[in-house]
Design a protein that fits this description.
The protein is mostly helical and about 250 residues long. The chain has a domain at about 5-140 and about 215-250. About 60% of the residues lie in helices and about 5% in strands. The protein contains eight helices and four strands; from the N terminus they run H-E-H-H-H-H-H-E-E-H-H-E. The protein has helices spanning about 5-40, 60-85, 85-95, 100-135, 150-160, 165-180, 215-235, 235-240, and strands at about 55, 195-200, 200-205, 245-250. The strands form two sheets. It has a two-stranded antiparallel sheet. A hairpin with a 2-residue loop joins strand 2 (about 195-200) and strand 3 (about 200-205). The longest helix has about 35 residues, at about 100-135. It is globular.
Length: about 250
C-alpha cells in the first residue's frame, strides 16, 4: 500500500495518479478507435436504431463502458487533488476539519469509495460482456458456464488461444470484488489464504484480513491490464468471427 505522510504528500501522489490515468484514457481511446476501424459492423449501444435500443454488441460496448468507469475514476482523483487537498475547500464545506489527520481520513474514505466503484463496475461489465459472447457462440462455448463469474471466465479462457495467461488477473479482480462485499475483509467460503501472481507481482489474500496492497496504485494497474486482456479476447478469431454478440439490456435512460 502506498504510504502517505501528510497532506502535501497525498497531493503529490494524487498528481501522479491523475497523470497515470490520463495515459490510460489515451490508451483506451486507441483501443476504441482500432475497434471501429477493424470491425466497423460491430454495433455499440449508441449506434442502435430506435427500434432496437435494448440490444447492442457487447464487444465495443465493453470498451465504451470501461472508458466511462475510467473517466469517473479520473474525475474523482482530480477532485481529490484539486479540492479535497485544499484547506480553503474544507473551510467552506466542513469548518471543523482543521488538522491534516481530519483531512486525510476524509480523503481516505473518498478514495475507498472510488476504488470499490472501479473494481465492482469493471467486474460487472466484464461478466456481462463474456456472458454475451458465450451465449452468442454456442458452437464454441457452453452457456452452462455462465452461472458464476469464475466458471465463466475460466471456460472462456480455456476455449481461446491467447498469448498471455489471464486467469490470475481475473481471479484477482474477482477476489477483490468479493472482499468489498464482506466489509473489506477476505472471507472466502471454501478456501484459505491465497496468493495470486500477475504482472510480476504477488497479491496475497489472507483470511480475516483486509487487502493491504489494494490502493489507488492498484486502480492504475487495473485500467492497464483489463483493456489489454479484453482486447485480446474480443479480437481472437473465435470471438471476432461471431457475427453478432448481441446483449439484451434495459437502459437506464429509457
Amino acid at each position: 500500500m502506498t504510504q502517505i505522510n501528510g497532506l502535501a504528500d497525498y497531493h503529490s501522489k494524487l498528481t501522479s495518479w491523475v497523470i497515470a490515468l490520463d495515459k490510460r484514457r489515451d490508451a483506451l481511446s486507441e483501443y476504441l478507435l482500432k475497434l471501429q476501424q477493424k470491425y466497423p459492423s460491430w454495433r455499440a449501444g449508441v449506434n442502435i436504431s430506435v427500434q432496437n435500443t435494448d440490444q447492442f454488441d457487447a464487444r465495443p460496448e465493453y470498451f465504451m463502458l470501461l472508458a466511462v468507469i475510467l473517466q469517473n475514476a479520473w474525475l474523482s482523483f482530480t477532485h481529490m487533488r484539486d479540492q479535497l487537498c485544499d484547506r480553503s475547500y474544507w473551510a467552506y464545506v466542513e469548518p471543523k476539519f482543521t488538522s491534516d489527520q481530519h483531512l486525510l481520513e476524509a480523503i481516505s474514505g473518498y478514495s475507498t469509495m472510488v476504488n470499490q466503484y472501479a473494481i465492482s463496475q469493471t467486474v460487472s461489465i466484464t461478466q456481462t460482456c463474456l456472458t454475451a459472447i458465450v451465449n452468442s457462440a454456442p458452437d464454441t462455448f457452453s452457456s452452462a458456464a455462465t452461472i458464476e463469474f469464475k466458471n465463466l471466465y475460466s471456460h472462456v479462457l480455456r476455449n481461446l488461444s491467447l498469448s498471455h495467461r489471464y486467469e490470475e488477473l481475473f481471479d484477482i479482480i474477482r477476489l477483490v470484488r468479493n472482499t468489498n462485499h464482506t466489509n473489506g475483509f477476505f472471507q472466502p467460503r471454501l478456501v484459505g489464504n491465497l496468493v495470486k501472481t500477475y504482472g510480476g507481482k504477488e497479491y496475497q489474500f489472507k483470511v480475516g484480513q483486509s487487502i493491504k496492497w489494494y490502493s489507488d496504485d492498484m486502480i492504475i494497474s487495473l485500467f492497464e491490464w483489463m483493456p489489454d486482456a479484453m482486447w485480446e479476447i474480443v479480437t481472437t478469431p473465435q470471438v471476432s468471427g461471431i457475427s453478432e454478440a448481441l446483449l439484451a439490456s434495459v437502459r437506464t435512460d429509457q
